[in-house]
């Protein structure tokens, strides 16, 4: 495990820190400035709690029940009841990395000094993360407004020593047992603290940050596989010229075209597009690869901008302001995050769609310019990659369904007090599936393109580009087999998926090209 330290200050955190905690199990240190800010805001809350006037979240009920004033002797019970009642999730468990991300992001807001919790609450949450204790959070329970309520409540429950959690050994146990084993004292929540633990966009933001990291890798992978396919189809790389892309100055498009140009440098296969049957132009799925992938890159850049703004935010209700005011607000509404989660699902679907069209061209003897049908060893006796494309097509069709926006939906809740919600959590959950599907689609194109390149080299004596050769060597070293008689394909396709997902594809190409965008 990567045990680097992440110092959490009062001024927020970075996407890199979130990934380090979520995926690298980095240790969290609460900075002195953060602890001072937490204590300062807590003093404001305690002063308000001592007054007779009702203050939302401090001395009242919640949501539609905020009309009731709660006396001091019942306020600990109020916070405990809030967490217990809101821990109402159902369905499958959410992945460990997502739960760690949402906990760290909630801790980030606690450390901002705007929530009014005691320092011990933040310190205990940091201790849970550092011990590798991961609350059991369920798939369903957030509407993406008033925060990711149920998911965060399940985390807050573990902070209280209740509910279930997964220990560092991967075993799910009662939270009380895990806390005791790691000498962590459960928190008895006081005024405002239960509300502060559950009222944020942390789940959807965490999944956005994880998706941005994954898609960054996948856009590079898609540029590489597009280049390999162009090469295998004897296409022209003249459409990748920098000056052609400069006259339509979308930065993502230029980056994708440059990636493809660098992968194809020195190829002995490009430029043969007029050898067998004259082609003035390649098909759209080849020629327009930078335009489609580039538009996705620009969408990703916008998503990162929104994520960075959200990382700089303190999302809670009410909030403690610098001048000591405690104000209700609507900053917990997840619309900004929900929109870009949906945008990314659309970009992923289109990138998967164009990759599948390129694969289909490689397999169709009428459009592959001399390659055998389905890249089969003995067509007719062998089916080659026919059904691999079926699998890819099924994944593309699911991506299209996942691209239907969640954020255009809303359903009233809390007796019409919360009458418009973002559905951002749902957008994030479907994006995670879309990202995984996209990696599998790119893996199938990689598998087909590398086989096609080897067939070209064997039958026509044409040498792929040095970067393509490096990819071919790495693919075979990873145990992904090349051309030959039909065999059990599923293990090869899964190995290709792992090769794409873990960045091995990009590293292989970059061993020749240098860093790609």
TrEMBL record:
The keyword Lyase applies. Its main location: cytoplasm. There is a cross-link at residues 145-147 (5-imidazolinone (Ala-Gly)). NCBIfam families: hutH, PRK09367.1. It is an enzyme of class 4 (lyase). Pathway: Amino-acid degradation; L-histidine degradation into L-glutamate; N-formimidoyl-L-glutamate from L-histidine: step 1/3. Keywords: Cytoplasm, Histidine metabolism, Lyase. The keyword Lyase applies. HAMAP family: His_ammonia_lyase. The modification 2,3-didehydroalanine (Ser) is found at residue 146. Contains an active site 4-methylidene-imidazol-5-one (MIO), which is formed autocatalytically by cyclization and dehydration of residues Cys-Ser-Gly. It is found in: Cytoplasm. Belongs to the PAL/histidase family. It comes from Streptomyces polygonati. GO terms for molecular function: histidine ammonia-lyase activity. It catalyses: L-histidine = trans-urocanate + NH4(+). Its EC number is 4.3.1.3. It comes from the Bacteria. This is Histidine ammonia-lyase. InterPro entries: Aromatic_Lyase, Fumarase/histidase_N, HutH, L-Aspartase-like, Phe/His_NH3-lyase_AS.
């Amino acid at each position: 495990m990567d045990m680097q330290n992440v110092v959490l200050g009062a001024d927020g955190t970075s996407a890199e820190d979130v990934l380090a905690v979520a995926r690298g199990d980095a240790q969290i240190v609460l900075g002195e400035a953060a602890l001072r800010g937490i204590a300062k805001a807590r003093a404001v809350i305690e002063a308000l709690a001592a007054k007779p006037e009702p203050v939302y979240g401090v001395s009242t009920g919640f949501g539609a029940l905020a009309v009731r004033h709660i006396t001091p002797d019942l306020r600990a019970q109020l916070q405990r009841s809030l967490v217990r009642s809101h821990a109402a999730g159902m369905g499958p468990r959410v992945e460990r990395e997502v739960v760690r991300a949402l906990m760290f992001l909630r801790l980030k807001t606690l450390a901002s000094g705007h929530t009014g919790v005691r320092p011990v609450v933040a310190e205990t949450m940091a201790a849970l993360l550092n011990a590798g204790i991961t609350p059991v959070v369920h798939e369903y329970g957030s509407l993406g407004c008033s925060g990711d309520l149920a998911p965060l409540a399940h985390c807050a429950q573990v902070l209280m020593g209740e509910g279930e959690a997964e220990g560092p050994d991967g075993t799910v146990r009662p939270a009380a047992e895990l806390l005791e084993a790691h000498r962590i004292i459960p928190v008895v929540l006081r005024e405002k603290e239960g509300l502060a633990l559950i009222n944020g966009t942390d789940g959807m933001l965490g999944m956005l940050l994880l998706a941005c990291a994954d898609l960054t890798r996948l856009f590079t992978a898609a540029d590489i596989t597009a280049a390999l396919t162009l090469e295998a189809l004897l296409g022209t790389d003249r459409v990748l010229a920098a000056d052609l892309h400069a006259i339509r100055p979308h930065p993502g498009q230029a980056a994708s075209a440059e990636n493809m140009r660098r992968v194809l440098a020195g190829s002995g296969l490009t430029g043969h597009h007029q050898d067998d049957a004259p082609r003035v132009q390649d098909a759209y799925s080849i020629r327009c690869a930078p335009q489609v992938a580039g538009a996705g890159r620009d969408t990703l850049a916008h998503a990162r901008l929104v994520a960075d703004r959200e990382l700089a935010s303190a999302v809670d209700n009410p909030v403690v302001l610098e001048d000591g005011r405690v104000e209700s607000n609507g900053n917990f509404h997840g619309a900004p995050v929900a929109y870009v989660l949906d945008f990314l699902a659309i970009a992923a679907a289109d990138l998967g769609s164009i990759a599948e069209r390129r694969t289909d061209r490689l397999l169709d003897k009428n459009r592959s310019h001399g390659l055998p049908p389905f890249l089969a060893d003995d067509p007719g006796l062998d089916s080659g990659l026919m059904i691999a494309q079926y699998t890819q097509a099924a994944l593309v069709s699911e991506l299209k369904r996942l691209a239907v926006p969640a954020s255009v939906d809303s359903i009233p809740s809390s007796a019409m007090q919360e009458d418009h919600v973002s559905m951002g959590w749902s957008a994030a959950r479907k994006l995670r599936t879309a990202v995984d599907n996209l990696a599998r689609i790119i893996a199938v194109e990689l598998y087909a393109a590398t086989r096609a390149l080897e067939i070209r080299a064997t039958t026509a004596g044409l040498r792929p580009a040095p970067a393509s050769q490096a990819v071919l060597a790495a693919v075979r070293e990873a145990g992904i087999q090349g051309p030959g008689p039909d065999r059990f394909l599923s293990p090869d396709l899964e190995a290709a998926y792992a090769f794409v997902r873990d960045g091995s594809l990009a590293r292989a190409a970059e061993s020749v090209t240098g860093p790609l965008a």
